[in-house]
Amino acid sequence: MSRKNCTSLWRVSQKMPIFAAMIQLNTIIDILWKGFIIGVVVSAPLGPVGVLCIQRTLNKGRWYGFVTGLGASLSDIAYALLTGYGMSFVFDYVNKNIFYLQLFGSILLLAFGIYTFRSNPVQSLRPVSTNRGSYFHNFITAFVVTLSNPLIIFLFIGLFARFAFVSEGVLVFEAVTGYLAIALGALSWWLGITYFVNKVRKQFNLRGIWILNRVIGSIVVLVSVIGLIFTLTGKSLYQ
After folding, report:
1. What is the pLDDT of residues 188-215, one digit of tens each?
2. Cα–Cα distance, 158 to 178 (Å, whole number)
3. Which tens digits make up the pLDDT trace of 107-123?
4. How far is residue 232's CA from residue 195's CA, in Å, rounded to a whole number?
5. For residue 164, what is the DSSP state?
């Protein structure tokens, strides 16, 4: 081997760690934004816990509303881990049927968005005790209410399929990063919504809850339609 070739190989070998680091960084960024979006989408619709969070923010204060969302987030993460762990046993099936799974995920997300848009969260309003209670009490009640709805697993299955969130050969560090990103997305949503409601508490009424829910439903529908179009045209936003 010539000296020139040896020099070229040496330069390539010196650059390989940089390339590997860039690839790993891109993978982490990809996992982070996917997990963050999943966390927001799961938390955003104003179901019973969402309405409870708003009620407590208005009646007890912002941080009581936030710990309510925190309790819901912990329950969501438990279901996310259960879903991801279950899907990890069927990697071969997932890889062979990725088109149909992403199609199913988009349709499920579309149905979820339409349901959210058409639902009336005001019907979930319940009298709120004037007694604030402890932060832990507000946290644990939200956790139990969310945990009592195992149907959220189907939403996670659809989202994981749509965003290709579960894949074979993922390192433990990458998996942990993904689930932490889901938690970050959920917490960011609850922090943002309680901040918003607290700021406009004097103007926020039942119609405000209804409008907010319709906006959320519309965004979910839009995202699912875009994903559906890309899947049917053989393209992907997520891989």
Report:
1. 999 999 998 888 877 766 677 778 778 8
2. 16
3. 877 887 787 778 766 66
4. 39
5. T
